[in-house]
Amino acid sequence: AEDGKYHDEL
Amino acid sequence: MNIFRLAGDMTHLLSILVLLLKIYATKSCSGVSRKTQELYAIVFLARYLDLFTDFISVYNTFMKIVFIASSLAIVWCIRVHPMVKRSYDKDLDTFRHYLLVAASFLLALFLHEKFTFLEIFWAFSIYLEAVAILPQLVLLQRSGNVDNLTGQYVFFLGAYRGLYILNWIYRYLTEPRFTRWIACVSGVVQTALYADFFYYYFISWKNNSKLKLPA
After folding, report:
1. What pLDDT does B215 receive?
2. DSSP string spanning B177-204?
3. What average pLDDT does this structure show over B85-98?
4. How far off is chain B from A3, nearest CA to CA, in Å?
5. B76-91 average pLDDT score
6. What totals of helices (H) and strands (E) does chain B contain, helices first?
7. Taking residues B187-213, what's their average pLDDT?
8. I need a labelling partner for B147 at 20 to 30 A (CA). Which of A4, B72, B108, B153 fits?
9. Residue of B nearest to A9 (CA)
10. At the top level of its lineage, which domain of life is listed (chain B) (predicted)?
11. 3-state secondary structure (DSSP) of residue B145
12. Are B39 and B128 in contact (CB under 8 A)?
């Protein structure tokens, strides 16, 4: 799910 | 998550801890640009607007809160704390940083992933972060000698986005649909702005001499 989100980076 | 991004986030956290240590230990913000700190506070507030609506992971939420809280605390220290405030040299910190805010926001209105409130503020935060270090670099050039902690702060702050570039290369090679042009191009520009600082930082480390940026 994490990488599915678009802005998963800080 | 990959090792480059984790190392990048930890380096970014380290830069903030070093700056907090410098301000707390010396009760002074000499050599620190208040304007760069204000720009970073805007960067985090604009980028993490989805803090309460988009849950990605505990790590992600925790780090967002740390970055927002620490950047606001540092600005508060420099603006309000009587001991620290006295050491702020506003005659050296003269970069017109509101121009950076205006230019970044204008660019975000034209160049963004989607024309939505969150995406425009996200792109704005990416562009602003790329140039946020400029007031600090200008101040370092003006203030001549740089104390160790401030030098280390700028070094780690520049290094973190360099590690993110490795993260983007890694993700591009391992994830089929990975493209983050806005973050990548801005990240390269951001890291490039540190190039001469990195050079003089390396020279001072090699010669074990005081870090000095040419005026």
Report:
1. 78
2. T---HHHHHHHHHHHHHTHHHHHHHHHH
3. 96
4. 8
5. 96
6. 10, 0
7. 96
8. B72
9. B60
10. Eukaryota
11. strand
12. yes
